[in-house]
Design a protein that fits this description.
Blueprint (H helix, E strand, L loop, with lengths): L6 E7 L5 H12 L4 E7 L1 H11 L3 H5 L4 E3 L17 E7 L1 H9 L5 H11 L3 E6 L6 H12 L3 E2 L13 H15 L24
Parallel strand pairs: 1-2, 1-4, 2-3, 4-5, 5-6
Helix pairs in contact: 1-7, 4-6
Length: 202
């Protein structure tokens, strides 16, 4: 960075299903030189991490450079003067989506997201719910209109994944692409196979 500081990314993990996305993202950022990760884990996320991955809060927090408590609305990342490159909420619950859409700032995750939006930095919400109701859709529209990126963690199959880990890595890699962070999590699309007998519909 021009001012000599590392690139800083804020990562929040909420209680929606898909905790693996947040954990994998923090793991990858921790292994990337020049990236300083600031992590927030909500109380609901602690339950999901244990249910889905068998992980404790301290195991996940140990992966980050800096850890913030969700109740600490006076943390450094709650101020626009704190320089960061953006924030990812992975996964993002519908409760957190609503808080961001309405600018509630009632906890540090919502406040940090509000700061990223007001400072015109990149905010990515890996929203996790299905099916969506009208409130969900309207909240996603509101965040998009404010400059946020709605990124449901939908698996792709054109690269023929052979495991859940490969599907997760592909999605996490796409998120890292949004911040210009180099990675080797998944192969890049190079076009249809030259030797394929399948012709796309016209």
């Amino acid at each position: 960075m021009p001012d000599g500081r590392p690139r800083r990314l804020v990562v929040a993990i909420t209680g929606a299903t898909g905790a693996v996305y947040g954990v994998r993202l923090v793991q990858q950022l921790a292994a990337t030189p020049g990236i300083e990760t600031h992590l927030i884990v909500s109380d609901a996320a602690v339950l999901t991490l244990h249910q889905e991955l068998g992980m404790q809060r301290r195991e996940v927090e140990a992966l980050a450079h800096v850890v913030h408590k969700n109740r600490d609305v006076g943390a450094s990342i709650a101020s626009g003067s704190f320089q960061s490159d953006g924030m990812v909420i992975a996964p993002c619950s519908m409760k957190t989506l609503a808080a961001v859409a309405l600018g509630l700032s009632d906890n540090l995750i919502a406040r940090a997201a509000d700061v990223v939006l007001k400072e015109r930095r990149r905010l990515v919400l890996m929203v996790r719910e299905t099916p969506f109701n009208l409130a969900h859709l309207r909240n996603m529209t509101a965040v998009t209109e404010m400059g946020g990126v709605i990124f449901p963690p939908l698996p792709s199959f054109y690269h023929k994944p052979e495991s859940i880990d490969e599907m997760v890595d592909h999605t996490v890699g796409r998120v890292m692409d949004l911040f210009g962070v180099e990675h080797a999590l998944a192969p890049r699309w190079g076009g249809m196979n030259a030797g394929s007998d399948t012709t796309p519909d016209t």
